Amino acid sequence: MHDRPITHLRHVDIAVQDYEKQIAFYEEKWGLTKVGSDGDVTYFAAEGSPEQYVIRVRRSQEKRLDLVSYGAADRESVDALAERLASDGVHLVGEPDVLQTPGGGYGFRFFDVEGRTVEVSTEVAARQHRRIEEREDIPVRLSHVVLNSPEPEKLLAWYERYLDFRLTDTNVHPRLGGIMWFLRCNPQHHSMAIARCPHVSLHHASFEMRGLDEYMRGSGRLMRDGVHKVWGPGRHRAGDNTFTYFHDPNGNTMEYTTELETLDEDSWHPHLYSTEDPETSDQWGTSNPMNDFVSREMFNDPDRGLFAAPPV
User: Fold this and answer.
1) What is an example of a Pfam family matching this protein (predicted)?
2) Is domain 8-122 given the CATH code 3.40.50.150 in the classification?
3) How many CB atoms neighbour CB 221 within 10 A?
4) For site-directed labelling of 210, which of 114, 123, 151, 256 has its Cα 20 to 30 A away?
5) Does 278 sit behind a cis peptide bond, omega within 30 degrees of 0 on the bond before it?
């Protein structure tokens, strides 16, 4: 059994009302590859990633975050996590079993403390992938996911306790206190983060580009195409990664990024970064200023799928 129950982020699954526009957005604008569809569910891979898919889109009358999926090292880790969660009263959607999604594997789903569906899996077959070439402005892989929470300290404690995520850094506001917590499950600065928000929802999903030039080319291409830019281009302090945030056709925020920091976990000590310092939001000073309007654009709509597992 692996020491940590979670090894990495696999995919983020969403349900949307305007399904056809969402499919066209990922395929024609965002740069993902459609790898499967049954008419009501479509799977998208990133060309540089061995994951079978990094985003799944489902047609639905209610917009929601269907689930967030993480990898585990082996079956023993999956079984031990399921046993631990169940013994502490965490609601399991099902017991560990063979997965029926592309690539197969072995895993299970459960609800986090706020009712999101989380999946943990292992033995998923690797997808044939390729090296992203110079100046090719498409995502290499899924980088991280950020969750909105009205009780972020409680959610942080839950992920630390049950999934062994570790706090890397925190952005703090002079009046509100902590407003964003960056969490890791491997040496990557963060695979997930938690943002303070009035309601439970998806804050954003982030996609890694090949390098600075590809990141800028992709950001500029979307801006020229009239995709609504929320914030960027710039470079954050926590994680030292670049950012440009856009709205997809259903109002979810999606990010292009690159150069996310890799840590020496043995020597790392979490920082507190004040939002009063403009370099906390953007070290370069090139993005539109972070303000209440930009923050509200990332609040998203309240999630309608809490404590209700997606049908597939």
Assistant:
1) Glyoxalase
2) no
3) 15
4) 123
5) no
C-alpha 239/C-alpha 254 separation (Å) is: 17
As a whole number of angstroms, the distance between CA 312 and CA 293 comes to: 35
Kindly indicate the confidence band of residue 292, based on its pLDDT and cuts at 50, 70 and 90. Answer: confident
Q: How many CB atoms lie within 10 A of CB 213?
A: 14
Cβ-Cβ contacts under 8 Å for 193 (sequence gap 6 or more) = 144, 145, 146, 147, 180, 181, 182, 183, 203
Residues of the chain with CATH 3.10.180.10: 8-122, 141-297
E-strand stretches of the chain: 8-16, 33-37, 41-45, 55-59, 64-71, 97-98, 106-111, 117-122, 141-149, 166-173, 177-184, 192-196, 201-208, 229-235, 242-247, 253-257, 271-274
Residues 6+ apart with CB under 8 A from 88: 162
**Strands 41-45, 55-59: parallel, antiparallel or unpaired by DSSP?**
antiparallel
Residue 126, Cβ neighbours under 10 Å: how many?
A: 10
Q: How far apart are the first and last CA of the chain?
A: 28
Task: Give the number of other CB atoms < 10 A from CB of residue 301.
Answer: 14
* Assigned token pair, 244: 């440009």
Does 2 score more than 70 pLDDT?
A: no
CA proximity to 236, closest of 260, 206, 214: 260
Distance CA 28, CA 22 (A): 10
167: amino acid identity, one letter: L
Average pLDDT over the chain, rounded to an integer: 97
Q: Tokens standing for 208?
A: 């890694």
Q: What is the pLDDT of residues 65-123, one digit of tens each?
A: 999 999 999 999 999 999 999 999 999 999 999 999 999 999 999 999 999 999 999 99
Phi, psi (rounded to 5 degrees) for 305: -110, 25
- Give domain 141-297's CATH superfamily: 2,3-Dihydroxybiphenyl 1,2-Dioxygenase, domain 1 (3.10.180.10)
Q: Report d(CA 307, CA 259) in Å as an integer.
A: 35
The rounded distance, in Å, linking the Cα atoms of 104 and 189 is 29
